[in-house]
Write a structure and sequence with these properties.
about 500 residues; mainly beta; six-stranded mixed sheet; five-stranded mixed sheet; 5 helices; 40 strands; about 5% helix; about 40% strand; elongated
Length: about 500
Amino acid sequence: MKKILLLCLLTFSLGACKKTETVAEIPKSSDKTITSVTLLTADNPALPGDVTGLVNAGTVKFDIPGNVIEREFVLTFKLAAKSKLYVGTVEQISGTTKVNFANTVTFTVKAEDGTSSDYAAQVIKLGISPLANVNNTTSYYYKSNAKTWINYATKVPQTLKFYPGGYLARAFYDFDKDGDEDLLMGNLSYIDGVGLSSTPRPINYLSNDGGVYVEKSSSKLVGTPGLVHPRKAILGDFDKNGWMDAVLVGHGYDKPPFPGEKAKLLMNNNGVFTSSDMGFEGSFYHSASSGDIDNDGDIDVFFTDTKGVSKLFTNGGSGNFSLNTDIFPSTVSNLNYFTSEIYDLNKDGYLDLVIAGHEHENAKTTVFWGSYLGKYSTSNSNVITGISQWGIVIDINFIDVNGDGKEDIILDRQGDGTGAQKIYHGLNIQILTQNANGSFTDATSSLITNNIVLTDSRLSWFWVDWLRCFDIDNDGDKDIVTEDKYYNLQWRNDNGKFVKF
């Protein structure tokens, strides 16, 4: 009996001491945070540098240069512990999965507890995007594609008193849309037996009537606009009405105190031009060039001004221009630059700007490269190597000489008076081929024959204002000719080498 009682007591005691242990379940995380997300250059070679995404209030934004065309990128990211990132139903693997950002993408972050949060992710382009066929917007495009090459001394009506060296501002185009190229011209104001005049001389419109140029200025130019000393005419449909407009620039009376003059903007409507002033009083404009510099769908104008800073006017969309001081570097000032051309030389969708003038006075011929930043800078430029004693560059042209897809540069050089070569005398054509890194190599000696021309038997002086790259022999490639057939100078393109005829 005692044994039974003892056993019962022992059993009761052991039972009373035994406790049930319960382990609390750890709740699953609901954290759906994107800690960081980056587009690494190592995984995305189209990017010039790593791009860190900005994560904020349900959005992820990547700022990339506007010239990056690629829209598929590999993500490198960090998330909250035990969460996963999805695009649609596809789980994203950091450093591996590629995402297409052609449109806004939804990032879905799923937490450990199954809850999720969405982020609207997008690529934001900085600056301006490249523009396909941007060269077609340039005044150089119209100059180089003109089909007419004439001797002005014989083709221009004698009543206009053309003489070599006159009518420096001239442009061919089918302004009235009748199927042939008409001629818009501006001549310096000159009085026989007296000399230069300070009174503006009317601009002339010559209609092409079956190959005969007929003076129709009174019916084609409202208000008979004029300039004292026009230097260049450039073309562009500035108001986008489907009719070709023009800008004529001049530098005014070419004697002290050199007062300068405003440019003339000629807007074409149904073949009739209305003129207005453009630029600033007193500007000494030797040249102008135009193109869609900011890639916004309209054509801007650049003036070279030898008396100060060259000026760039941006188009408001309908031919309403305003001075823009942010695009061209103000550091390039008070130098004798007087010629320019705008063209996309490296075919990246951005217009490049080439300016030149008196190299012997430190106005170095320079290529300012266009970019997604939408402005030119000395830090993104290349200076062209000059030629001793031939330091005056009057005209700039472009040909892809070697067929590598990049435009090469053709310069019209005159003597600078620093040595035996007289100032503003002769013609020395320089050919510079473009290298892969954007520099240029002087290939003149190997690419053009019988180059330097010093005299013309019909003239007591000799220098050439404008050259043109023109297919004179209709063989499909561009040759080099003087813009005025009067001089009858031509170098024909023979497989990338220019031979004088």
